[in-house]
Write a structure and sequence with these properties.
about 350 residues; alpha/beta; Inosine-uridine Nucleoside N-ribohydrolase, Chain A; 11 helices
Length: about 350
Amino acid sequence: MKMMNKMKDLWKDRRRFLKTSLAWPMVVMAAMVPLLSSSLCSAQQCTIDWTAQYDPRNSNQDRDETNGPVPIVDADDVIGYTADGNRVDEDDIAATPLALAIFAKRGWKNQLVHFSYNSCPMNGSEPKPTEHKASVEGAVTEFGYDTTVTQFFDCQVDSQWNAAVANAVVVIKSTGNGKKFYWLQAGPHELAYRALEQVKKEAPEKLQNVVLVSHSGVNNVSTHPIRGSLGGGCGHTLRDCLALDDSIGYFYTSLQGGNTNFGSKKANNWAAVAWMNTIDCDAWNFVEKRFRKAQEMYDKPGLDASDAGMAYTLATRDPDGNFVTMTKWVDGWCPEGTGRSEPTGSTTSPANR
């Protein structure tokens, strides 16, 4: 009997031990459930943390999030734009003229000092570089760019690669005393890498004035699966550029593509840009035609101007813009000397002009 009572006491002690031992892990797990759910929800974009820090210098971090607040481009700053236009997809055929339209609407034509395109070297010829060139030259005319202020370089059709690199070097060297160079990368960072590499040799103190703007993981890291199709001459990425010097700045904004933002190959929300065809403005009519040309070359629904989303984000400081918000921002604006004059009494706020 005593033996049985002793065994019962031992069993009670064991149960108390197990209950106590498991209590804290259960509490910890219960506390972690909301955090795990929140992380999962964030990964599915249930909620978006605009201040989340994406660090392309961290080799273990390839997250698609906006890198903090959208930078403010001051009146003394200058802007550059580089688009491949001849590799992977046809989005630049539509995105490039839209980006030029956005810069013009924002009043940045005189601050846009460098524009290089067809910047991913390739062998042979195909229609994409030629169509991209038509998009650029048409937008330059329609939106009234002064080519003595904004230097344009066709790296493929006109073989201006070396001239484009040299010009970017000059622009970077001109910065300082509060003047920054915001360089939008609508494609691989090869040209940017070559220019930054040269500046590092000649005037390394100027690198701190450069801010690279990117929106695609394809262009950020060399491990992205699409990069294998880029071939020679397009190997350097955002991460490679930043590795040249710790002072080089960057802004990464990923929410530009997809059906709810500035499109994709499969996007089909053409009603959102129908106004470009019906508005009494030759410049916007031209942009709509280039959208249709890109669609024709995709042979898919193909409403895609995701690269232009970077221009829109900088111009409006809205990191989650789309064709609908852009339409409201444009507010019927048309550049002077094309189709009709800019309307007076526009409801667009002065801050967004």
